[in-house]
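Exercise 7. Given the encoded structure of a 205-residue chain, write a plausible sequence.
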């Protein structure tokens, strides 16, 4: 239950960029990087930095809690460990904004995204092959596919000349990642509840 709560917090906090729709910062939402929201000269930049820090700490907490119950199978173990790496890299990413230490920020951002991809892939594989987190076979896999499509769009936009709405692609990517963390939270809660449910003893005739 605690792990599910931590994952839910991570998913909500990782979507702190939505605050830009409430109090506009003037950034072009179709073309700017989300990391630009954390620059010191951006109004309310602390909201985005603290959002990432909370998301990262919650993800690390969820990883430790899940690892403590000994996840069944290599896929599940990989997903849980990678979740912890994602959380750690996300905190480091927030502490090294794009405008302050660009090289470190680029590295931590890449590690965070890659490790969350590993988490999503391993959790999906585990759902199919190790019978963990059944919801990850359907809603989880669908959300993962959306993340993959948005990531491909974003990488292409960053490398091709022209206006390919890179910012929109990244917002869809990160938004889908947040949704995936929430789905994983539901899957974890459901699996924990099912595991605690007492088994029925067949009646003797």
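Solution.
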């Amino acid at each position: 239950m605690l792990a599910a709560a931590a994952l839910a917090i991570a998913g909500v906090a990782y979507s702190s960029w939505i605050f830009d729709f409430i109090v506009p910062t003037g950034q072009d939402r179709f073309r700017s990087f989300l990391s630009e929201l954390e620059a010191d000269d951006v109004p309310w930049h602390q909201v985005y930095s603290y959002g990432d820090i909370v998301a990262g700490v919650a993800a690390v907490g969820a990883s430790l809690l899940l690892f403590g119950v000994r996840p069944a199978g290599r896929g599940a173990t990989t997903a849980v460990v990678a979740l912890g790496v994602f959380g750690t890299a996300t905190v480091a990413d927030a502490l090294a904004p794009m405008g302050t230490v660009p090289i470190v920020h680029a590295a931590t951002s890449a590690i965070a995204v890659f490790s969350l991809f590993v988490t999503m892939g391993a959790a999906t594989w585990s759902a199919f092959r190790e019978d963990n987190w059944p919801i990850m076979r359907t809603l989880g896999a669908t959300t993962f596919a959306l993340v993959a499509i948005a990531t491909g769009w974003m990488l292409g936009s960053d490398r091709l000349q022209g206006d390919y709405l890179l910012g929109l692609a990244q917002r869809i990517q990160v938004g889908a990642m947040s949704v995936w963390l929430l789905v994983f939270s539901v899957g974890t809660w459901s699996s924990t509840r099912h595991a605690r449910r007492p088994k029925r003893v067949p009646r003797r005739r």
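Remark. The chain has six helices and no strands. Students should compare their own answers with the one above.
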